[in-house]
């Protein structure tokens, strides 16, 4: 029965090591500079605003957006 324990510990160590390698590669792939993050967020905001039309409504005083009307 002792060899089952060794086999189980070896399997567990393999799973942990594989998970660590995958996580490290994922972090390296997704490492953005702060400027890239900011630019990407501004781009996404502009795209979302254009799609919903809320950006143009905000520039007009007194015009309620759909979100404000839902409250």
List the helices and strands and how they pair.
Elements: H1 2-29, H2 34-52, H3 54-58, H4 66-70
Notes on the protein architecture:
The chain is mainly alpha-helical. The chain has a domain at 17-57. Helices cover 80% and strands 0% of the residues. The chain has four helices and no strands. The chain is elongated, with a radius of gyration of 25 Å. The N and C termini lie far apart (65 Å). The mean pLDDT is 78.
Fraction of residues in β-strands: under 5%
- Helix percent reads over 70%
What spatial form do the alpha-carbon principal axes imply? elongated
Largest sheet: none
Q: Low-confidence spans: pLDDT under 50, at least 5 residues? A: none
The total count of strands amounts to: 0
Question: What is the terminal-to-terminal distance?
Answer: 65 Å
Oligomeric state of shown chains: single chain
- Overall average residue pLDDT: 78
Structural class determined from secondary elements: mainly alpha
How many helix segments?
Answer: 4
User: Secondary-structure element order, as H and E?
Assistant: HHHH
Radius of gyration: 25 Å
Give the tags.
0% strand; 4 helices; mainly alpha
Short description:
This protein has 71 residues and is mainly α. It has helices spanning 2-29, 34-52, 54-58, 66-70.
């Amino acid at each position: 029965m002792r060899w089952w324990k060794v086999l189980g510990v070896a399997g567990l160590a393999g799973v942990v090591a594989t998970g660590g390698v995958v996580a490290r590669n994922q972090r390296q792939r997704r490492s953005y500079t702060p400027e890239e993050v900011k630019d990407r967020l501004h781009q996404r905001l502009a795209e979302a605003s254009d799609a919903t039309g809320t950006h143009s409504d905000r520039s007009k005083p007194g015009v309620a957006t759909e979100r404000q009307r839902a409250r």
